Amino acid sequence: DSVIAVSPPYMAVEGVIVTATFEDNSTRYTRDGYNSAQLVNNSNNIEAAIIYVKDKLKRGRPVIIGVHYTNGTSTPPNNNNRATRHFMIIVGIGTLDDKLYFRFYDPGRSLANAANATSPENILVVDKESGKVEGNYYNRTYSLTEIVKTY
Q1: Would the pLDDT of 25 be above 60?
Q2: Per-residue pLDDT tens over the stretch 70-122
C-alpha cells in the first residue's frame, strides 16, 4: 500500500460526518485563538464514522478526513469546520490493544518526506467512550474532526 495514485478517481462530496469541532464554530480564528480553542468531541457521530470508513475500505476506496492539530507558527485555514486544519486520507483499519484504529496517509508532505507520509505507524486510535479519535504524528497530536463523505 505504499503506491500513491498518480490520477486518483474523481470523488464528489455528498456530506460530512462531524466528529469534533470548536464550541464556537463561527469565529474566524487567528493563530493564537486557534491554538487555544477547546476541541469538542461529538461521540454521537463516532459509530457512523466507523461504519462509513469500514464500508468505503471494503470497496477499495480511500476516505478523506479532516484533522485538528495545534501549530504555533501558521495561520489556520478557517475551513467550514473551524477545528479542521488539515486533510488526510484513511487507507486502512485495524486494532491495537483491543482498540480500533484508522491508518492514514498525509498527502500534504513533500516527496522528501514520503516515508513519513505513508508510514505504517500513521494511525488514529478510536476511543468510543470519549468520542476522541487521535494519534501522534509529526511530533503533534492529530485529532479527527470530520469524515468527508464521497460517492
Answers
A1: yes
A2: 987 889 999 999 999 999 999 999 999 999 999 999 998 888 888 999 999 99
Q: Any idea which residue has 470519549 for its cell? A: 130
Q: What's the pLDDT score for residue 110?
A: 85
Residue 112: the pLDDT is: 86
Give the per-residue SS3 of the chain.
CCCCCCCCCCCCEEEEEECEEECCCCCCCCHHHHHHCCEEECHHHHHHHHHHHHHHHHCCCCEEEEEECCCCCCCCCCCCCCCCCEEEEEEEEEEECCEEEEEEECCCCCHHHHHHHCCCCCEEEEECCCCEEEEEECCEEEEEEEEEEEC
**Across the strands, what pairs with 22?**
39
Q: Who contacts 131 (Cβ-Cβ below 8 Å, separation ≥6)?
A: 19, 20, 41, 42, 43, 44, 46
